[in-house]
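Allow me, if you will, to draw on your knowledge of protein folds for a short while. I have a record of one protein: its chain in single-letter code and its fold written as discrete structure tokens. I remain grateful for any guidance, and I place the record below:
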Amino acid sequence: MERTFVMVKPEGVARGLIGEVLARFERKGLKITRLAMGRVTTEQAEEHYAHLREKPFFGELVEYITSGPVAMAVVEGPDAVRHVRNLVGATNPLEAAPGTIRGDFAVELPYNIVHASDSPESAAAEIERFFGRS
């Protein structure tokens, strides 16, 4: 079984979409094995977006992800990373296909409802960052 990390971002939480987002993974046959509500700290956000540190929008990303509560989950199943990424859709809501989470609910960046790990390696690092060692 592969594990991946998913975060429903502040606007997804504010819009009441946690259940809808998680239900899509469960309907696919994936299992939610850890779930928590919380707030991302500035330190966590800066580490999470470190690969974008030199981009002009880095500060906006950090400010946004720390602006409200988030829902964080560990999702497991065969090829979980790829399945979750397919269900989530393209990063830019304008490019996300209808039927995907971002295609159905997101309108503009950086407000794209959800974060999903892009590889098993990033999933392991993100699970540790937000849930600690298991």
About this structure: The chain has a mean pLDDT of 96. The first strand starts at residue 2 and ends at 8.
